[in-house]
Amino acid sequence: MRLSALREGRALIYVPDTRPALRSDGVLEPAWLEVFYNPTMTLNRDLSVAAAAAFLGGRRGATVLDALAGTGVRGVRYLLEAASDGTGVINDIDPRAYELIARNIELNGLAGRATPANRDAGSLMLSLSHEMGVAFDLVDVDPFGSPAPYVGPAISATSRSGMLGITATDLAVLGGSKAAAARRVYGAVLPGPLREYREVAMRVLLAYVASRAAEHDKALRPLIVVSLEHYVRLHATFERGARVANETLSRNIGCFRLRSDAGAIELADELPDGKTCFGPVWIGPLGSPEFVGKVLQAADRLDYLESRQRLVSILEKLVSEVALSNFFHYRLDSVCSRMKSNIPKMAKVRAVVEGAGYRFSESHLDPLSFRTDAPPDFVADACVKASRT
């Protein structure tokens, strides 16, 4: 295998020679590489490192598992940038990836701290947790496609006080464009394609993870959840106990309704019926404002991150957005279209909403998206009023 060396974060990484994987337009096709590596996911990995640094917070001897590692870049970065005296297992089922992981461990001086593994991710996590009694402070699952097959084993492998990170790149399924697959993979009944698919995807994934956690008598506690580019990324921890798991499901699993009159989607604490209310979806908050603030501080401190400027901008929105995430986001273009109104500047809509005593936050999901605790009818009227000023 011909290799190239590149630097990402604090890591120096060998990756397969990218030239054979370039399309005719010069764009890299990661799936064509001998070992998967996607440079466009640097933002995802930068966020993950910042979240790990915020969560571990100097915890000594932290343990890390990167279960679907590819080149091993994420696991190596965790140990270099967030768990500097910790240990970890970096795994991939592909023998070529395993060889590359071992080389990258050596290249970054992590021999003795990081162990390469060549196992099926699900069986490895179940073996470590059930047969060996090993659990990790940080477990990361970053598959190519759906994380569904790995969620249960990953929850088992996460320690009592640990954090689980999950990436899902199957937005078309989670967001409803492939409704049959959403029902088959996640048990979610969805109405079909929606412009608001990003948040639908986040809430369907959270509901699925929460349900799988409850099977292990664990209650999901989302810390930070985003939908960017072609993926959803979530970091969560868990509270142990059957009673609290039951309470979490009862309080936070419901459905969503489409309101055609006001261009709104409303969350409801009811079971989905597949006709007027769809799901199941997570209707609780999309993370912790306090934790998002810590991630922002960590990202600000890690000034070498390649995507730092963009990451900080996203996190600054999230700090206020998460506090309103019990309410589904609005798209300004959708609301104004239904009201047959021109699209005003977001600042004018904010002024109308906040002037009436309601809370308002722009959303990271789209430049035209926002959240508010104002009623849908008021939001619709606010669009019209803002467009006339």
How does the SSE layout of this entry go?
Blueprint: E1 3-8, E2 11-16, H1 42-56, E3 63-66, H2 73-81, E4 87-91, H3 95-107, E5 114-117, H4 121-131, E6 136-141, H5 148-157, E7 158-168, H6 171-174, H7 179-186, H8 197-215, E8 218-228, E9 231-240, H9 242-252, E10 253-259, E11 264-268, E12 278-282, H10 289-301, H11 308-322, E13 330-331, H12 332-338, H13 346-355, E14 360-362, E15 369-372, H14 376-387
Parallel strand pairs: 3-4, 3-6, 4-5, 6-7
Antiparallel strand pairs: 1-2, 7-9, 8-9, 10-11, 10-12, 13-15, 14-15
Helix pairs in contact: 1-2, 1-10, 4-5, 5-8, 8-9, 10-11, 12-14, 13-14
Describe this structure in words.
This protein has 389 residues and is α/β, with parallel strands linked by helices. Helices cover 40% and strands 23% of the residues. The chain contains 14 helices and 15 strands. The strands form four sheets. A seven-stranded mixed sheet has the order 5-4-3-6-7-9-8, sandwiched between helices. A three-stranded antiparallel sheet has the order 11-10-12. It has a three-stranded antiparallel sheet with strand order 13-15-14. Strand 3 (63-66), helix 2 and strand 4 form a beta-alpha-beta unit. Helix 5 (148-157) packs across helix 8 (197-215) and helix 12 packs across helix 14 (376-387). The N and C termini lie far apart (63 Å).
Defining key terms:
single chain; 389 residues; alpha/beta; 7-stranded mixed beta sheet; 15 strands
